Amino acid sequence: MILTLNEPKGESYKELIQLAFDRCDTFLFIKHSQLTYFQSFDILLEELKDDFICRKVQNEWPGTRSVPTAMVYYFRTSEKSRETVKKITDSLFNWQAPYLPDDLCFLRNNKEWLVTTAHEHYCHIQTENQFEILQLQRINGLIERIDREFPNHNMS
Question: Is residue 73 part of a domain?
């Protein structure tokens, strides 16, 4: 199932991040090579350093194919990183330059779970788990629609 989400902000953002950290083992975000980021980007990397896995130059990441490439940063989920991600902003669509890295996404067993394209104000969750769907439905105003197949959304 593909659950297309409304903008997760405020309490909905915190609840979604809580669930993402409960259900996933990895999260990632990107740094575009052609954009400038403020010092807050480096401060965030420092706060997440204990959970850092690797960074890779890629032209594709969840929800996006890009030219030019970007640096994709991968992290393990942990209680400490959960609190950092919850407190750094109050909206999933704030994950974009210049203040924050772009496109916060979550993976479970190397498969996409939460996919974000922040500059397009788009995000979705991929799951077949009925318990997860029920938990997501309990987050006030979060779900825009549920599709059995991937909706027609252009990757950019």
Answer: yes
